[in-house]
Every structure is written in C-alpha cells, then in structure tokens.
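Check these lines:
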Amino acid sequence: MSNETIWNANCLVSKVVQILRDLKYDGHHLGRSFATGYQLAILFKETFREDFDRLGYVVGGKGIGEEFTLASYLARELSQRIKRHEITNVEGGFLSNERLRNIEFDDAEESVKGKVATAKGTGEITAREVPAYPCIRFSRAT
C-alpha cells in the first residue's frame, strides 16, 4: 500500500490534528507546544490503538532494528504535506540536537529512546549527519 493510500485510508491528518489539539495548552504567550514524531507516535498508539495495530508499525526509537516506524512515517508525511500546503492548520519546526546527548520518551509499554546523531571520528559533522528533531504543533483552525 502506498504512503498516500495509508495516509488517506486511515484519516491520519484528522487524527494527528486531534492529538495536537489535545496537547495541554494553558495559553502560553509562545503558543502551543510542539511534539516530536516520537511523541506523536506514542500518543497515536494510546489514542487510536486499533488503528495503530492495523497499521503494523512499531513506535520507533534507537536500536530497535526497524527501518519503518510510525514516528518516522508521521514526521516525514507531515513535513512533506506542510511543505506542499496540503495541511495548513499545523506548523513544523525543529528541536536542535546541538549539545543534546540523549532524549527519552515515555511510552506506557516501553521506554523509547530517540536517535541522536553523533560525530564519526574526528572529522567535521555535516548537516546530513546531524538531523534536528522535526516537531509539529497545531497552529490554527481552518
């Protein structure tokens, strides 16, 4: 099944928007909180368990040995759809991994460790080797 078919058949945009809207928001002057792909995947699993099981992805995380994870799928699809202006009520951003060694997310069933890129050898690190964490937040109703 193609990414487009998976995305549309499971109404993923409306489910992700629901998750983002439901994040705790106390009217902070900086706006709503951002969530990483890992957080979205964990919240998706908790909120839409039947859909999570049907999709067949694992949440994701460092060292799990899975190439295709829900965290990476959601982050990739949201990023591409925001860029193409298909989704206009959420915005993307990045959490820099500068000076970040470890990041761990709390899944009720397991601890999920985020992947943090590190320098290889003593050479300079290129932008491709040091990805920042993509983050998404609900920005406005359409």
Notes: The first strand starts at residue 35 and ends at 36. The beta strands are 35-36, 90-95, 104-107, 110-113, 133-138. The mean pLDDT is 76.
